[in-house]
């Protein structure tokens, strides 16, 4: 799967509230702050089928928000504090697009120099610098922002950045564990915040892939975090939440839930490629079904079964067949089987095999932690079985 929606960061849509005029009247600076909020809300919730339509809408909103700043009376940006807010909003508005914008960085840099206590300016500056690939400088900005006090948004951004830093790093596993730690710290600050739970789900899902795509515990943690994120109604407009949760379900072989999740993601953002994932799952399930239907001729099957008689177990496990297994984990037993067919598909895990045991029963074996085809025979200790006729190791 693409890791783009797991690793990248974006400037958060929060902004400091500019002071109102005497008597409680709104100021043009406050109106510009609201326009910036609406601009980022559009970015995060508007997913038309044509990406050009979104780009045009963002450009129009950006021009309108900048026009509000251009119309500010000079007295509303005289003091360092107000000028800092002005520079922050201008930089934030310019940084709404996915690509790096030098002018946005310049304005955000001015903002933190004029008002070093402006936490959201540090946060947006870090994201802007991240876009140009300077990850260490971006983390420094986030760390300076976090130094002003605990903040769930900053912790989430640090968590995402650490996952990005992990790519190609010798300390990949350590950085992903740090990402999980910071994601949990964000949740501790607000246990009901859906974005923090979503970020934790992404951290666990990344950890699954970094660890070799075999540890189901990471997947279960990931799905649980995504389910907690869904409880926050503000997350319902996030197509990546449904896409990533469906991805975790896919690798857990919860294909019915995965299909539902990808279908929801496709409806919310047609450009995400979730419809392709739906077709991949349907294709895989068809292959598995066809493999089970393709029975060997009696003579060849007898040859397969007889070849199992000479295989000896090298453990204390009791020899079993697929028919004697109970649903769930089967401890202290081992199933001997002959590999009939390796079933090729497009996912990195698991590997699928059509197996025949010595009682001439066929079943599908899913194997995690391997990246190459297996040998002709297999003996599996402590298999986990499903009533569908599939089991995994």
* Overall form: elongated
Number of helices: 15
Supply the CATH superfamily name of the largest domain. Tetratricopeptide repeat domain
Q: Major sheet: size, sense and barrel closure?
A: 8 strands, mixed
> Any idea of the CATH topology of the largest domain?
Serine Threonine Protein Phosphatase 5, Tetratricopeptide repeat
Give the helix/strand class.
alpha+beta
How would you spell out the order of helices and strands? HHHHHHHHHHHHHHHEEEEEEEE
Give me the CATH architecture of the largest domain, please: Alpha Horseshoe
Q: How many independent structural domains?
A: 2
* Approximate strand percentage: 5-15%
How many beta-strand elements?
8
As residue ranges, the low-confidence spans are none
Distance between the termini: 22 Å
Helix content: 55-70%
Rg on CA atoms, Å:
27 Å
CATH class of the largest domain: Mainly Alpha
User: What's the overall average pLDDT, rounded?
Assistant: 88
Question: How is this structure best described in words?
Answer:
With 393 residues, the protein is an alpha+beta fold. It has two domains: 4-8 and 28-286, Tetratricopeptide repeat domain (Serine Threonine Protein Phosphatase 5, Tetratricopeptide repeat), CATH 1.25.40; 296-392, OB fold (Dihydrolipoamide Acetyltransferase, E2P). Helix content is 55%, strand content 10%. It has helices spanning 4-7, 28-45, 51-70, 80-94, 102-114, 119-131, 135-146, 152-166, 172-189, 194-210, 216-230, 239-251, 255-268, 274-293, 298-308, and strands at residues 318-320, 328-329, 333-343, 351-356, 362-367, 377-381, 384-385, 390-392. Strands 1, 2, 3, 4, 5, 6, 7 and 8 form an eight-stranded mixed sheet that branches. It starts with a helix and ends with a strand. The mean pLDDT is 88.
